[in-house]
Amino acid sequence: MRIGIEINGVLRDTISKLEMVYKKYLMDKTDGIDESETFEYGMNLPVTSLKLRDHFKFRDDDEFFSFLYEEFPMEIFGHAGSTEIMTFHDFNEFYVEFRNNHDILIVSDEIGRSKPSSLFFLSKFGCLTEKVKFYSNTTINSMWEEIDVLLTSNPDLLLDYPKTKIMIKFNTSYNQNIKVEHEISSIKELKDKINLIYDTNA
After folding, report:
1. How many CA atoms lie within 13 A of 101 on its CB side?
2. 3-state secondary structure of 136
3. With contact defined as beta carbons under 8 Å apart, do 173 and 31 qualify?
4. Residue in 3, 4, 44, 1 with CA at minimum distance from that of residue 135
C-alpha cells in the first residue's frame, strides 16, 4: 500500500506554536504601537476548528496570510514541536519496519515559505522518510494519486475524499465530531492500524 502521513496535527503541533507566536508578536508587542490604534488582537481558544480566522483575530485575510506565510513561517512551521514527545521515534520505527512492503510518504498542505520551514521541521526531528509531497487546493489531486491510505487530522480531508481511498483520523480537538472507520490517537498505534487495514484489504 501507499501510505501518506500528514504533517500538521499528526506529526507537528502547529496550532500550539501558532498560539505562542501570535501572542508574542501581536498581543504582547508594545514597540511602535500607535496609541490611536483601534484594532485589538485576540485569540478565541481552544481551537476547535481549522477555520483559524475564527480563533485568531486579524484585520483581514491579507494580514492573516502574511503573518503565517511571509513574516513568521519559520517560527510557526519550522520551530513547532511534535504532537507527542515520542512522535518521531515512533514514526521512524514504523517507517523502518514497513518501508519494504509499503510506500510511505509525508504529505502536507503548504504555501510559499512554509515549504522550506516544514522541511526544516522534518530535518530537525530526524525524519527518515525519503519522500515528501507538498500540495495545495489546486494540486490536491496529485496527492491523492500517490496514496491509498491517508493519516490526517484535517476535518476537510476527513469529510471529503475519494471513496477509493482509506482514511485514518488522528484525533485532535478540532475533529472530534467527525466519524470515520479508522482512527488513532498516537503514532504508536499506527503499526496495528495499518496491519489491520492491509489484512482486511488483502
Report:
1. 9
2. coil
3. no
4. 4
Gyration radius of the chain over CA positions: 18
- The single-letter DSSP state of residue 162 is -
Q: What is the pLDDT of residues 10-34, one digit of tens each?
A: 999 999 999 999 999 998 875 545 5
Among 78, 109, 131, residue at a domain's last position: 78
How long a stretch of residues is the chain? 202
Burial zone of 161 (CB within 10 Å; 0-12 exposed, 13-18 middle, 19+ buried): middle
> What are the phi and psi torsion angles at 182 (to 5°)?
-115, 135
Number of domains in the chain: 2
In the structure grid, which three cell numbers stand for residue 125, read together?
Answer: 526531528
Residue 27's domain spans which residues? 16-78
User: Are residues 122 and 44 part of one domain?
Assistant: no
Q: How many CB atoms lie within 10 A of CB 104?
A: 23
Tell me the C-alpha distance between 110 and 124, whole Å. Answer: 18
User: Quick one: 87 and 6 in the same domain?
Assistant: yes
- Amino acid letter, 133: K
pLDDT in tens, 144-195: 999 999 999 999 999 999 999 999 999 999 999 999 999 999 999 999 999 9
174 vs 10: CA distance, rounded Å: 12
Instruction: Point out the domain boundary residue: 33, 51, 78.
Output: 78
46: preceding bond cis by omega (within 30 degrees): yes
C-alpha 46/C-alpha 143 separation (Å) is: 30
